[in-house]
């Protein structure tokens, strides 16, 4: 694990070299002023201003590279709060397609990455006013089955068809591909425009609720028929943008509210079955191995950190909001997390700007959970993407028993969290997803690991490593 002090020292040296003219001007100007030159104070003042910026910029860069969550990041109660099962995503606006094109559902049959190769893997890149620059938007080849207009709207129109093409996919919307459901506009002649933010809604990554005129809450998350109808209404009515997680009919004008109330009444009287979290055949759409981001693993542990009381906690993303800043392995997002302390204190929400790996964003419809490392004093939290990606199912875990038999651990298994905590409490590092109990350093925990595995019904295979 990197030390934030080491990162700060490195950034301080780098920034000092880049702005070395500041201290030089400060010394030269001070010397000239001392000798009576009238211009000396101005040069010295400019040098002082540049010199002061060196630690400020180094601290800002360190905070971006080593994003600790501290007390200053806590969301104040008066600013409002999300429900535990809410997830709000503010994604870049998408192309809306040609005028007259119909909004229908498309199923993703196959997906593969075509190109993603921005310059500068370690640097932060900011585009003024551009939330989805092509350089940081992966190009993906998709084979789609576009649903017939009759199926979607109950009206005479074009038949369903299949199409294979390449699309730029905003990183925040990658989970819609994995889930297998997209919202598209098509003219029925082969032109297909994918509505990416709405696709995350149809996929169930974003939650969606209605509040009717009587103040009753209707949850329509993953009710695809209702969501498509609601999307068509929203596109036909000015002032109703499906960007948040809730549409409150009481805040709409009477005519618009009446149009939305009809499908809302049907949703309450005849609730539609929820679509599955992911459509069948996910492996043909899963892009995690082709996208940048940390591999999932059981995580590294510092012995000092573990012995002094450092531990792991779980958190859940409640909100992600796109920004105009990007890194190679993921977009920089404004996030809100709900942290679940293990000491019995109430959960709290924290707002933090984080670089979120693309491979994690691709499985966001499955889980919004994250693993945080907690400092020994309990005051600072850091998102551990290595453990988070294993818990989220980006990688598949495997335990190798002391006798060499392999025990596969399914994606997102409830055995992963206790195994991570066991290793962390014993200061045992295992940054990969393979837990090999034959190794010398694993002897102290091998018995407890096998007991956990048996308690959760995980059976070894006949294959030996």
Please tell me about this protein's structure.
The protein has helices at 4-18, 21-34, 40-65, 149-153, 174-179, 196-203, 224-236, 254-269, 303-307, 358-361, 385-392, 416-425, 443-455, and strands at residues 68-69, 88-90, 102-115, 125-126, 139-146, 161-168, 181-186, 192-194, 209-211, 217-219, 246-248, 311-327, 330-340, 348-355, 369-374, 381-383, 397-400, 406-409, 434-436. It is of the alpha+beta class. The protein is globular and about 85 Å long. The protein has 13 helices and 19 strands. It is 31% helix and 24% strand. Helix 6 (196-203) runs antiparallel to helix 7 (224-236). Strands 1, 2, 4, 12, 13, 14, 15 and 16 form an eight-stranded mixed beta sheet that branches. A five-stranded antiparallel beta sheet has the order 6-5-3-7-8. Strands 10-9-11 form a three-stranded mixed beta sheet, covered by helices on one side.
What's the topology here?
Blueprint: H1 4-18, H2 21-34, H3 40-65, E1 68-69, E2 88-90, E3 102-115, E4 125-126, E5 139-146, H4 149-153, E6 161-168, H5 174-179, E7 181-186, E8 192-194, H6 196-203, E9 209-211, E10 217-219, H7 224-236, E11 246-248, H8 254-269, H9 303-307, E12 311-327, E13 330-340, E14 348-355, H10 358-361, E15 369-374, E16 381-383, H11 385-392, E17 397-400, E18 406-409, H12 416-425, E19 434-436, H13 443-455
Parallel strand pairs: 2-12, 9-11, 17-19
Antiparallel strand pairs: 1-16, 3-5, 3-7, 4-12, 5-6, 7-8, 9-10, 12-13, 12-15, 13-14, 15-16, 17-18
Helix pairs in contact: 1-3, 2-3, 6-7, 7-8, 12-13
